[in-house]
Specification:
This protein is of the alpha+beta class. The protein folds into two domains: about 80 residues, RNA polymerase II/Efflux pump adaptor protein, barrel-sandwich hybrid domain (OB fold (Dihydrolipoamide Acetyltransferase, E2P)); about 300 residues, Chloramphenicol acetyltransferase-like domain (Chloramphenicol Acetyltransferase, 2-Layer Sandwich), CATH 3.30.559. Strands 9, 12, 13, 14, 15, 16, 17 and 18 form an eight-stranded mixed sheet that branches. It has a four-stranded antiparallel sheet with strand order 1-8-6-3, with no helix packed on it. Strands 5-4-2-7 form a four-stranded antiparallel sheet, with no helix packed on it. Helix 8 packs across helix 9 and helix 8 packs across helix 11. The longest helix is centred in the middle third of the chain and has 16 residues.
Length: about 475
């Protein structure tokens, strides 16, 4: 046996330090290859460090809560002779995050595979059986957590079901042979749907009362129950998403007059990025009110489609597809500024701003312009689950080209978002609410939202900003435009 010290590695993006959040082993424990040793928090995310060797833990060299520099020894292990050289520099992030997910419909960024260190339980990835009415009723009393940046969606168990083969998508692709539905584009039927024909909300009286007590508008909550019924879990989850800005319960005043929170980790990185963005790029913002009734109808059609069975669908999915479409028509908004040149990117790494318990992060979907609607929905879902579990890796937040922030999940109508550093455009989706809307000279009820967007005025002129935002609004008003 050889006593070896394990130095804190650089898990990617040139990070210089990290905080030891929690040890997963103790002195005297026997560790195996790929067993998680410790959870650390970098300036961007939580990362689990698996062991590259087998042996016995001799000593933990750093206490939990301590911030140490890369290269500092953090654990001493009696390992077998001939094991991996622990002093060798680590430049490949994949050496520490485990195998990547080979699912073609998952995001292109690195993600832990089922059963690997840092992943969810392998059993959770197995196909879920169709619940009976009794089981569905029982599941209503099991609340779950959902990433607030994604919008309200189904429960955790539903998201782990087997994903079917792709069927009709707004890009006009043909349905798979196994589809029992007629071969037609999913959005085409929306052209003839009247603006006032939104389907009624399906919810039992106790659920309606709960929603009223929590201040949740049922029209904005996608139902996950049988036949699209809104469950107790759906309402609670939707309310929890807004708790970042609007607490469900009012706590007592703390006994301490002041609380001091160290500025470190993700919060330190957020502060630095926001100051850099706000005082470097001259921001300009535009807004547009939108009749999103057909988007809501489109979302309900997708949720009822066998193609999207087991996949979370929300207005954010349509918004994401709309942004990609608008970028293709207005490529300047998908650029970066370097003082010497403007780099226009002809690909879309679509960022989704996500508020998590540890702060704001912006993971992005690589090459989102290449994804079908189904693949995009699956990528959004996987991103949500990964962020919710605190497993988002630095590589998944690097290289973004344009960002969406879903203010509607907090019940906000709109806002003036600050640009993600390195990008020149960010789009805000407000809450979708039923409001009076004038159609052909008559006032009718409609689902209305506000699209807001901020741009770097060094790159994006007012006409481009307006056309880009108008294109997004046009798709939300008529998703069938995606067929183009």
């Amino acid at each position: 046996m050889v006593a070896s010290e394990f130095p804190l590695p650089d898990v990617g993006e040139g990070l210089t330090e990290a905080e030891i959040v929690s040890w997963r082993v103790a002195p005297g424990d026997t560790v195996t290859v790929n067993q998680v040793l410790v959870e650390i928090e970098t300036a961007k995310s939580l990362v689990e460090l698996p062991s590259p060797f087998a042996g016995t833990v001799q000593e933990l060299l750093v206490d939990e809560g301590a911030t140490v520099e890369v290269g500092t020894p953090i654990i001493r292990v009696n390992s077998a002779a001939g094991s991996i050289d622990l002093q060798a520099p680590v430049s490949d992030e994949s050496a520490w995050v485990g195998p990547t997910d080979t699912n073609d419909h998952a995001p292109r960024a690195a993600a832990a595979a089922p059963g690997a260190p840092g992943s969810v339980d392998a059993a959770a990835a197995a196909p879920a059986p169709t619940p009976t009415p009794a089981q569905a009723a029982e599941q209503e009393d099991k609340p779950g957590a959902v990433l607030v940046g994604y919008g309200s969606a189904g429960g955790h168990a539903t998201s782990r079901r087997r994903r079917p083969a792709p069927l009709p998508t707004p890009d006009g692709s043909a349905p798979a042979a196994t589809d029992p539905q007629p071969a037609r584009p999913a959005a085409a039927a929306l052209v003839s749907v009247p603006a006032a024909s939104a389907s009624p909300v399906i919810a039992k009286p106790p659920i309606r009362k709960l929603a009223k007590d929590l201040g949740v508008q049922l029209e904005t909550v996608p139902g996950t129950g049988l036949a699209g019924e809104i469950t107790r879990d759906d309402v609670i989850r939707h309310a929890q998403q807004a708790s970042v800005f609007r607490n469900i319960e009012t706590p007592e005043w703390p006994t301490d007059r002041e609380e001091r929170i160290p500025v470190k980790g993700v919060r330190k990185a957020i502060a630095k990025a926001m100051v850099e963005s706000a005082f470097t790029a001259p921001h300009v913002s535009v807004f547009s009110d939108v009749n999103a009734t057909r988007t809501m109808e489109f979302v309900k059609r997708l949720k009822a489609s066998p193609t999207f069975a087991g996949v979370r669908v929300s207005p954010l999915l349509v918004m994401a597809k709309a942004v990609i479409w608008a970028v293709r028509r207005n490529p300047t908004v998908n650029s970066s500024w370097t003082d010497k040149e403007i780099i226009v990117r002809h690909y879309v790494n679509l960022g989704i701003a996500a508020a998590t318990p540890r702060g704001l992060i912006v993971p992005n979907i690589k090459d989102a312009e290449k994804l079908s609607l189904l693949e995009l929905a699956q990528a959004l879902e996987q991103m949500t689950l990964t962020a919710r579990d605190g497993k988002t890796q630095p590589a998944e937040m690097a290289g973004g080209t344009i960002t969406i922030t879903n203010l509607g999940s907090f019940g906000m109508d709109t806002g003036t978002p600050i640009l993600n550093p390195g990008e020149v455009g960010i789009v805000a989706l407000g809450a979708i609410k039923q409001k009076p809307w004038v159609i052909d000279g008559e006032v009718r009820p409609a689902f209305v939202t506000t699209v807001g967007a901020s741009f770097d005025h060094r790159v994006v002129d007012g006409d481009v900003a307006s056309r880009f935002t108008a294109d997004i609004a046009a798709v939300l008003e008529e998703p069938a435009l995606l067929l183009d």
